[in-house]
Specification:
Layout lengths: L8 E2 L6 E6 L10 H9 L3 E8 L10 H18 L5 E6 L8 H14 L3 E5 L13 H17 L21 E5 L6 E4 L4 H9 L2 H6 L7 H14 L6 E8 L5
Parallel strand pairs: 1-7, 2-3, 2-5, 3-4, 5-6
Antiparallel strand pairs: 6-8, 7-8
Helix pairs in contact: 1-5, 2-5, 3-4, 5-7
Length: about 250
C-alpha cells in the first residue's frame, strides 16, 4: 500500500517584502503565481527577477526576437498577479552556470531589493519522479541560497558596496516553489484563477512548445489539487523552506 503524502504546514506570511529569483520567464507561473497573487492581495510587495529572458525557449523563433516576446509576456504575467517590477538580468538562456560569478550577480540583486523572503524554483535533480530538472533551474536555485548568505557579508563581493549599497542580512528564509521535498504550502484556493490567467499570458511560449491541447487551467488544477489535499483545501502551492542564519 502506498503511504499518503504527509500534510503540509502553512508558510509564515508575517512579512512585507519578497524577491522571486528564477531562471526563466514562466518559471513562476507553473505553480507559484497563484501564491504570489495571494500575497500581493494581502498588501505585500513582491518583485520578480528573471536571470535569463528565456530567449532559447521557442525553437521556431530566433533568440534575438524571442527575447523581447518572452520579456513582454512575463511583464504582463506578473501584472496579473499584482507584481509591478520585473527585472531581467540578461544571462544567456540554457547555459547558466553555478559559480562565483552567478553568486556575485545575485548577491547584488538581493542587496538592492532588501527582501525578507526570497523565492526561487525547485533546484533538485528531478521534480519528484523520473522527469529531470532543467540545468538553469538547478544552477540558479543553488546560487540563490549562497547569494542570500553572501549578501549579508560585507567582506564578500565588497566591491559592490558603493553609492549607498549596503550588506543585507535580512532574508529570513528562502522558499523553493514546486520542490519534491516540500513540507510547507500556501492555500491558493481564492487566487487560483489569477495563477491560471498569469500562465495564459505566456501564450507565445506555450504555442512554441507545440502543446496542441494544453489547457493552463487543467494543468494547474492537476498540480494544485494534490497539494491542496495535503493542507485540507481545494488548491495549494508547495514550497521547501530553507531558514537563513545560524538559528535555522
Amino acid at each position: 500500500m502506498t503511504e499518503a503524502p504527509a500534510p503540509l504546514a502553512p508558510l509564515d506570511e508575517d512579512w512585507e517584502r519578497a524577491l522571486c529569483i528564477v531562471a526563466h520567464p514562466d518559471d513562476m507561473e507553473f505553480g507559484a503565481a497563484a501564491a504570489v497573487a495571494r500575497w500581493t492581495g494581502q498588501g505585500k510587495q513582491v518583485t520578480y527577477c528573471m536571470v535569463t529572458s528565456g530567449e532559447a525557449g521557442i525553437d521556431g523563433l530566433h533568440p534575438d526576437e524571442c527575447r523581447s516576446v518572452r520579456e513582454a509576456e512575463q511583464v504582463e504575467s506578473a501584472r496579473v498577479v499584482g507584481v509591478d517590477e520585473v527585472e531581467f538580468l540578461g544571462l544567456q538562456d540554457g547555459v547558466v552556470e553555478y559559480g562565483v560569478a552567478l553568486r556575485r550577480t545575485l548577491a547584488e540583486v538581493v542587496r538592492r531589493h532588501r527582501p525578507e523572503i526570497v523565492v526561487t524554483g525547485n533546484f533538485h535533480e528531478t521534480f519528484g519522479g523520473r522527469n529531470l530538472n532543467q540545468a538553469d533551474h538547478i544552477a540558479v536555485g543553488r546560487a540563490v541560497l549562497d547569494a542570500v548568505r553572501d549578501a549579508g557579508n560585507r567582506w564578500i563581493f565588497a566591491e559592490q558596496l558603493t553609492d549607498g549599497l549596503e550588506p543585507w542580512g535580512g532574508v529570513r528564509e528562502v522558499w523553493a516553489a514546486g520542490s519534491p521535498r516540500a513540507e510547507h504550502g500556501v492555500d491558493t484556493t481564492e487566487t487560483f484563477h489569477k495563477g491560471v490567467e498569469s500562465l495564459r499570458a505566456h501564450g507565445a511560449y506555450i504555442d512554441g512548445l507545440g502543446w496542441e491541447h494544453f489547457d493552463p487551467a487543467e494543468f494547474l488544477e492537476g498540480l494544485s489539487r494534490g497539494t491542496g489535499s495535503r493542507m485540507g483545501v481545494a488548491f495549494a502551492a508547495p514550497f521547501e523552506v530553507f531558514p537563513m542564519g545560524w538559528g535555522g
